[in-house]
Structures are given as C-alpha cells and as structure tokens.
Predict the structure.
Amino acid sequence: MNDMTITRAEREAKLEGMGCKRKRVEDIRFTQGKGNYVDDVKLPGMLHGDFVRSPHPHARIKSIDKEKALKVPGVLAVLTAEDLKGVNLAWMPTLAGDVQMVLADGKVLFQNQEVAFVVATDRYAADDGINAVEVEYEALPVLVDPFHAMDPDAPVLREDLAGKTEGAHGPRRHHNHIFEWTVGDRDLTDAAFRKAEVTIKEMISYHRTHPSPLETCQCLCSFDKVKGELTIYGTFQAPHVIRTVVALIAKIPEHKIHVIAPDIGGGFGNKVGAYPGYICAAVASIVTGRPVKWVEDRIENLCATSFARDYHMTTEIAATKEGKVTGLRVHVLADHGAFDACADPSKWPAGFFNIVTGSYDFPTAHLAVDGVYTNKAPGGVAYRCSFRVTEAAYCIERAMDILAQKLGMDPAELRLKNFIRQEQFPYHSALGWEYDSGDYHTAMKKMMEVVDYAGLRREQAEKRAAFQRGETREIMGLGISFFTEIVGAGPSKNCDILGIAMFDSCEIRLHPTGAGIARMGTKSQGQGHETTWAQIIATEIGIPADDIMVEEGNTDTAPYGLGTYGSRSTPVAGAAIAMAARKVKAKAQMIAAYRLEVHEDDLEWDIDGFRVKGLPEKFLGMKDICWIAYNAPPPGMEPGLEAVSYYDPPNMTYPFGAYLCVMDIDVDTGVYKVRRFYALDDCGTRINPMIIEGQVHGGLTEAFAIAMGQEIRYDENGNVVTGSFMDFFLPTAVETPHWETDFTVTPSPHHPIGAKGVGESPNVGGVPAFSNAVNDAFSFLGSTHIQMPHDFWRNWQAAKTLGAV
Amino acid sequence: MDMNGSERIEAPVQTVWQALNDPEILRQCIPGCETLEKTSDTEMTATVALKVGPVKARFQGTVQLLNLDPPHSYTISGEGKGGMVGFAKGGADVALAEDGPDATLLTYVVKAEVGGKIAQLGSRLIDSTAKKLAAQFFADFTQKVARVREEIAS
C-alpha cells in the first residue's frame, strides 16, 4: 500500500498543502475566458431591466408619466414606487437598521437615485424606454456638507422619519442625525488630557471613495409561477444572507428561493449589500412571468451602489514629554448619505472603528461617532477592509505621526515606545477588544533593518538641506504605517447581520476513490478559495489538493454561511474547514484502527495516512481508507466519509504589519514618485504564500489609488463629478509602483490552524503609509496635516500654501 | 459656472438691441437651437440640442427677459430640462454701449448651473464647451446683425 520508494518529502509535496505556493486552480478558466459570470448566464425568454434615475440630488417628484415609455417597441413594463407599494416593497430594510427607498417614493434624496424600472426585451429597448419616461421634479435645497447636516435650518431630508427621536442605534438629536455611538471611558480620558504634558488635535478626513470592482453589481431573477420558486443569480458576496433576507421581505418560503452566485469579478465590499436592482428584477420577474436581468453600468456603480469611507475624524492624543501616550479622544462625523445602508454587523453602527487605539498601549480612550444624512448615495461599505478598520488605522497612524512631529521625535521611535509588548497578549484594549496575539517590536525592527531606515532619514535630512539651499526642487517623505487589523467577524456573542449570527461553514465529502468535494458558506470574488481551501484539507487529511474540488455560491448545495468580506473567510470558514476535516479524520482513524487491528490510540498520523506506532510498515493511506469507508466499513459503522462543521469563532483575529513608503515630490508640479514600498505582513499561519503575495499586491494597489487620488466627489450642488473612470482614479500597471513584500509569523492562538486573514491588511496599512509619506515630505515646510487624496494638483496646492512655490 | 466677456459689433446700439429681442435672429444664432417661440413680450419657449463631451441632450425650456432697460441692457434668464441627461439653468446680464458712431460694445456676464449626467460626465468639459458656444453665438450674431443692417440700408 505504502510505496516506500517515495520519500516523505515527496509525499508531502504531492499534497500541495499549507505553505505550498500552489498555482491558482481557478485561473485555468479565468485566463482562457471561460469564467461564468452573471452576465454570461442567459435564460430563455429573458428580459432586461434598467433604471430611470434622478438628475436631482434633492427634489420632490410631482409626477411620473409612463405612457410614452410603454409605447416604445420592446418595453413591457415600467415599475414605480406606486407599483411596488402593492407588494409592500417600495422600501426595504438596510443592514444598518434603517429603511431605504427601492424606487423614489414622493421625493429623491441623491443624484442618480432609482426612480422607475423599465423592463424590455433587450437592453437597448430598455434604454430607449428610460429616456421616454417623463418625470417632473420640483428641486429642493441640497445638503452636501456633512458639517452642516445638523444646522438648525438644514433641509429635512428624511420626511419618513419625522418625529422619530429614536433610531436603530439610540436617540437622534436632529432631523438629519442617524445615531451617536460612544465607546470608552469619557471621564478617565478627559482626566488624562487635563494632566497631559503634550497634546495634539487634528481633524483627519478620510474622503468618500468607491470599491469599483471591474464587474459591476448585477442579477438575474427568474420566478417560476407554477412551482412558486424564485431563482436568483447574482453578484453576491453573501448568497445565504440574500436568500434569508429575500425570504423575510418577499414572504417566499426560504426553501423555494435558490440563490446562485457564479464567478464574481471583484467585490471589495461593493457586493455585500442588497440593492434596489435586485428587488426590482425579482418583482419584474414575478409580474412578467419571465426571467429579468439587471446589469449596472459603470456610472451607476460609481454613483449609486455603496460608496466607502467618508469619515471626518477629530483626533486628539495626550502624551508625556518623553512620548508615552496617555490618552486618545476621537470624534467622528460620519457622512452616510441619504439612507444608512452601511454594511456592518448589525450591532456596530460604526463597524469596528473602536480598533482606533491601533497597535499602541493607550491606558484610556474615548470615541464618539455621529452619523448624519446628506444628499448623497447611501452605502458605507468595508472597501477591502474589515468594518471601518481602514478609517481607524488611518486615523491613529496619521495622528501618531503628528504627535511625533510635535514632540520632535522620530515617528518610528515613537511607535516602538508605545507598542503593546509581546508579553501583554492577549491584550485588552481601552476600547474593548481582546487582541489575540502580536509581536510588534520584531516586525517593526525587521522593517527598519531591511529598508535601512536610519540611512533613509539621513538621506532625507541631506535633501531637505539641499532644498533649502535652492539646489533641488524635490522633497522626500518617509511614510511609516504600523497597523493592527481586526478581522474574522465574528463571534456570535457580538456579531450578527439582521440577527443572523456570523458563523461560517464547510462540508467535506470524500468519494470512494479518494477524491472529494468541499462545499463552503463563503464566496470567492477573486481571493482564490478554490486553491487555498483545498490546501487546508490536503494538510489536514492527506488527500492531495488537486483531488479536492471546492464549491461555493449555490445556496441549495452549500452549507449556510455568512459569505466573504471583512477578511473573515480564513479566520471563520478556514477554521470550519479544519474542524470538518478533523471530524473526517477521526472517522478515518477508527477505520484504520479496525483494518490494522490495533487500538486507535496506537495509531499516529503520518502525512497522508495512519501508521501503527513503532511499526512503520503497518500503514493505511487516506486513499484506501476512503474506499473502505464506503465498501467495507467496520461492523456497526455507517458507510461514507463526510462531515460538516459550523464554526462560531471564540474571538476575532488581529493581523498586523509594518509598512514603509519612500516618496519624492516635485514641488513645482506636485508630481510624486513612489521610490520604494515595503510591506511586512503578519497574518499568522500562511496557507499559500503566493496567494498572500497576490492579495498584498492588490490591496496595496487599491490603497495607492485611494491615498493618491481615488475619490467620489460632489460639487456644491450635489452633482457627482467623479462618475466615470475618466475622473475616478483606477490605477493601471502604468501608475502602480513596485511592491516589496515580507512577513513574520505570529499564529492566532485560538484559530485551529493559527491563520488570521490577509486580503485587506494591505489596504488598511497602505493608505496611512502613502499619506504619511506625503505629509512627512511637507512637514519641514511647516505643515502638520494635508488631507487626502494626494493627487498632483493637491500636492502642488500644498506646496503653494506652504510657500514652497 | 461663470463666464464673462465682450464683443465689438459693427452696428449701432439700436440695431443690436433690436436683434437681441428678435426671436428669429436668436433662434438662428443660439447653437443647437431648434425652436424659439415668443409667448409674450418678455417670454419665450425654446428647444436646444447640445453635446457636451460624451453627453448629447435636447433641452426644452423657457426663456425670460428681465431688467429691461432699452436699448442699454437686459438680463436673459432660462431654464431647460433634458430628461435623463439632466438640466440647466442660468442667465446672462447683457449690456450695450456705443463704441463710435457705427459700432456697439456688447458685454456679458453669464452664470449657469448644470445638473444630472451632463454635470457628472461633462464637468471638465463644460467650461470649454460654454466658451465655444458663446464664441459661436457671437460670431453668428455679429454676422446676422451686419446682414440686417445691409437689408435696412438697401
């Protein structure tokens, strides 16, 4: 059975298990154009829906005339809020406890809001149809600036909330106020500030941006009137949640709803929420009795579905003269747009922003977040980050640099002085989290050594002197970021979405010939789950990764799970895989014991099978155990070899990293060059180093985009002026710098395989590194903080303001 | 969007004033103007087809003449709706001054606002498009006024 001519190393290599740079199996189809995306799915008799959208950011709807549109050849139906009221779907619940108009009901609250849904035989006819719908608007005063949202005379945006002084997250102080969320000890923190030798205060804004996946949001709904069943193909990061939400709001029994998420072309948080397009396509299919497809175009994606960030963070740090931090106080003004549709676990109106104490040992902290309504698109998704964690990391990493500047201390030294020390883990933060593990000093020192930090600072000092002598027009900045993420939502004790606990799941079924299938509650949008999940199984149960098929996204076959976002897949579903595999292995061990005629305790695991302790020739491999499990199980044992695990994690995981960006900026043009970018990530146990590297490259590229130019911007009249890739910065290979990656490994103590999650770390850590580099470059000219995004124009403006031009 | 400028027209103030109040001349000179009808002495309705960058729109709207001080100045103000493409509203203060016996200096101050898709996609093109349209308007207008003068002279 066991071919002794094969060495242990060869057996190990054949598995392609954890730690192996296994090539992505999904790329075989993606690189040949054989992926299957929602838009590739075509059903007989399929219709196409498209939206009439509001040109006004705030207006009353005086009338909607469908007549001309219904006469357009190919147009079959035009749905408005009045039609949806008949099925009680004119409004829908949001993930954040608010309600949102599906189609404009009486008024519009943001530009490009959905007003009517035109259904036609093809997309062209639908487009002609939307142009023929006549809507009469009466423009209303527009509220764009969140800082004026709670002015006494600010326009009333949400008339539906008139008189409601209680929101989903406590009292509302003003008609445009959504919630106030506070964490921490206010008195203790105020006292720390009173006693402080040094304090800093800065309003740090993290501008509105957008995940902009290359594939936009889309769905195809097909209602079978005879069976009463609804099938939905969609770009869903969380297919099961969609099924449950549809069951709850459309009152269709959950077993008669089939949600299928095929290949997804990037999500980055954009595809977590429920959008009016999904509801309208489903209703249109029920009304017409035919499948209805809705595919967002680029402008619609950027302007209407789920922006990210828009946090305005007034940040204060108290410290001693020697640079020991003693207190942190943060107030956030959160611009949520017209509806609070943030995609956070339901009890967390500001996500996990209370990770804002970062990697530092703050004895006390206090945080208050005020959410407000404005005439902008709703959203607030976790764009390649765990919920509001990138805002928090940016806030604290920028503030630490500002403190260092005030103290005249090197920012690296300040960080080293205040890091949570290795022996303090598990560490209880002042704002309520229990950090699982970390070794910050080692990571930071490794980064400083590899990049020759001291040498770079010397070079910067020389360049500054040369600049002041008028010998160069270039300034140099070093951007440090040492972030701590909080991912893996999450433990059911504090994480749920609309009451659905945030566990995840895996079902492993091995076939008689020693191959198998793993079905998951997660859904890859490019993360490479088909590759990495099989690697965990390979290591756990000794079946080669190539012999395991990973299937996700079909709610009829997959075990219930909460999907993929917030770097939760490896911390939660990755654990479920290991636990399911261990159940399979336990049964396999019983079979092996029976076959090898020993007690189970006399067996030991050896790469791909069980061996009798002390008798190396008595071995039974997993492949053989699979056959026996079905065809000759021990007496009294059920045939088959499969297991399912639903994993409710005991805690979050806390990946961290040390990043450095070296940047040169020409003050006369504002043009920057990223000379070097070094990223050290510690994500615990590393499943596939090549995939990690790819994830880090992607996350850094998105961080680069956001910090250096990517923005959803509104003019003072409420027009979105960044509605296409002409104005919205999406970097290509031309603009993207070279990335250097590195790592340390500090496993999570509570995770079955010690893994922490990595997909979003580079975005969380990357943004402050870029922004700190720009700010560090300008700091010697007298600035403390320049707001993002740092495009050429703004850099040049900064240089001008500081008198360098 | 704000824009201002001046044009020298080879015609006496009175002739220019008349032309500025003549719907037919305005129709011919306003770029893309398909219809312009007088509904009262100071009100007109108009249809104008425009292209700003990638966005093509047909605006339907009303035009009003305000602050009339013949033959020296008026304010022309309008509002147009372009359906899905968006809307535009704005106005221009127009003043005429004698520049020698046979010429008029026309100065204008334009304030305009656009909304909807035209503002989203065309934002960086709006100023240059507006300048181009204004230049075209005055080129045509100067020519028309000159022709009117010739007709009167002959």
